[in-house]
Design brief:
six-stranded parallel β-sheet; 40% helix; Rossmann fold; 2 domains; alpha/beta
Length: 400
């Protein structure tokens, strides 16, 4: 049988995987795994347990094993708004963190011994890549952004990252920006690095275009509530819009440790009546959220955004987009072509760019249409999953 037609046994290792149908946590990881199953391959996933979940189940044809790492009340390390952005800030997470790492390591080693995988796919170089890096099974690592940002923090992490990625058969990143940043941070790593955009459920998000727009026009933020996402800048921009008499409603859809401070800021700015707060919703509801929104905003600080998948989803659903030129975002939002970019850390300019889209339907429709064409070419499931299947076959040939 030609190697490209071989049925592979794939082990996926990740700290983030959907807990239920429609869960946005790690949805892109699941999409790759399920796409591989649909193409005739066998996929098993190792991921953390969470309260109320089964330890072993089949989701979308994928075998999922969720490792326990603490009594359920203390399982608060994973799925809580960013493992790479300070899990020790929560007392419960801090208490459970050592057990989480030990249990994760044990679960991965057990699966490597038992499942006879042809290839291992680790999402994020740490902790998943770290735990598979001593395996004799060939593996690839996909870096999503937050793990690359960790390399900025210390020489020790860069040394560990170089060791992990140097042992990988292939390394992939979700954007060109991340690939270049990884080469800058770890020039000693000679492993071939490829840009592999994550697959997006195109048909589901495109259905959002049929959704009626909210009145008054809705500005949407959807994501984790952590400082690096810049939601405070969006609240300041919204306050400026209010002072100018611009009609809008702002919906903050997400969860995270910054929420109390953000709510307090909205109160201080006098825009409480303009802001609606909502928890994460199932992924199946997100096309409606984007579709009802006139503008979706991602005001990320610094270079913390590997790509900005929220913006891809929003464009598919017919929402115009505004963002900061952070990380890989300009690969999706090309200023004045597929969306608008505001100056970094500048709430006044952010307010101006949002206002342009709120008041100018012609500009809004032009940018959104061009943006949708771009993301369809880049992030369609067939193209994105096909690239990973080719990689799996390539990596499987590296077995020692």
């Amino acid at each position: 049988m030609p190697s490209g037609d071989r049925r592979l046994r794939i082990l996926t290792v990740t700290h983030n995987y959907p807990r239920f149908s429609g869960d946005p946590a790690g949805a892109f990881v699941a999409r790759i795994a399920e796409g591989a199953v649909a193409r005739g391959h066998q996929v098993r996933v190792v991921a953390p347990h969470a309260p109320g979940l089964a330890r072993d189940e089949v989701m979308g044809g994928v075998e999922v094993h969720r490792f326990r790492y603490a009594p359920e009340p203390l399982e608060r390390v994973a799925y809580t708004g960013g493992l790479h952005q300070g899990p020790l800030q929560s007392p419960r997470a801090a208490l459970g963190f050592p057990g989480f790492l030990l249990a994760f390591h044990y679960a991965v080693q057990r699966e490597l011994r038992q499942c006879s995988a042809d290839v291992v796919h680790a999402h994020w170089w740490i902790p998943s890549g770290w735990f598979v890096s001593r395996s004799r099974t060939p593996f690839l690592v996909t870096c999503h952004g937050s793990d690359i940002r960790l390399l900025d923090q210390s020489a020790l992490l860069r040394k560990l990252g170089a060791r992990v990625l140097g042992r990988a058969a292939r390394v992939t990143t979700v954007s060109r920006f991340l690939a270049e940043d990884l080469r800058r941070q770890l020039p000693q790593v000679t492993t071939r690095t490829l840009v592999t955009p994550m697959p997006v459920d195109v048909s589901s998000f495109a259905a959002g275009e049929r959704q009626l727009k909210a009145v008054p026009p809705r500005i949407l933020y959807a994501g984790n509530l952590v400082r690096s996402k810049g939601v405070d800048l969006l609240l300041q921009a919204a306050a400026l819009l209010s002072r100018r008499g611009v009609q809008y409603e702002l919906k903050i859809l997400g969860e995270g440790p910054a929420q109390p401070a953000l709510r307090s800021l909205a109160d201080q700015l006098g825009i409480v009546s303009r802001v609606t707060w909502a928890s994460f919703v199932p992924q199946a509801q997100m096309p409606q959220e984007y579709g009802a929104s006139t503008v979706t905003v991602l005001p990320t600080r610094g270079n913390a955004e590997g790509l900005g998948l929220t913006l891809v989803e929003a464009l598919l659903a017919g929402s115009a987009v505004v963002a900061m030129p952070a990380g890989g975002i300009p690969e999706v939002v090309r200023h004045e072509e597929t969306g608008l970019l505001a100056r970094r850390d500048d709430p006044a300019d952010l307010a101006q760019q949002i206002e342009r889209l709120l008041v100018n339907p012609h500009l809004r429709e032009s940018l959104t249409g061009a943006g949708k064409e771009l993301v369809l070419r880049t992030y369609s499931p067939d193209a994105a999953i096909g690239r990973f299947i080719e990689l799996y076959h390539d990596v499987a040939q590296h077995r020692s």
